[in-house]
Design brief:
By secondary structure, this protein is an alpha/beta fold. The chain has one domain: Phosphotransferase system, sorbose subfamily IIB component (Fructose Permease, 3-Layer(aba) Sandwich), CATH 3.40.35. Helix 4 runs parallel beside helix 5. It is globular. The two termini are 29 Å apart.
Amino acid sequence: MLILRVDDRLIHGQVVAGWARPLGIKMLILASNKISKDEWACNAYRLAVPEGITFCCLEMKQCITALNENKLKTMVIVASVQEAHELLKRGLDVKEVTIGGLGYREGTREIAPYIHLLPEDIESVVQLYHRGVKIIGKQLPNSATIDVVKKLAGVL
């Protein structure tokens, strides 16, 4: 099992208590070319991960390698839709991307109270959609699912 989650808050209580524990996630990977170079930040995120769950803070390229070598139930967390798209361009094989939280920023379009997309986010959503990837909004596993593409198209 592999879950790719977009959440600009990265590792926090909702990820750990709401997703990782209930779904039996054994590995959390924070994939970020920027954060992976910051040992202090990686260690700070590591503190939020409970015992029994392996945590890795990796560059995008390293993330793909680690996933190819790993057969554990894994959640990969990225801070943006562009980073999720980059992972798929690098060979990550997922059929669904879950957006769990993208806070308001100047110039964003609100898709849900917890999803605000910049124009470049929308472009990445469209490109992922054209790759056959479903993009959903979902705060917790048992939360209502939002079809982000249909919401953008005004169908919902």
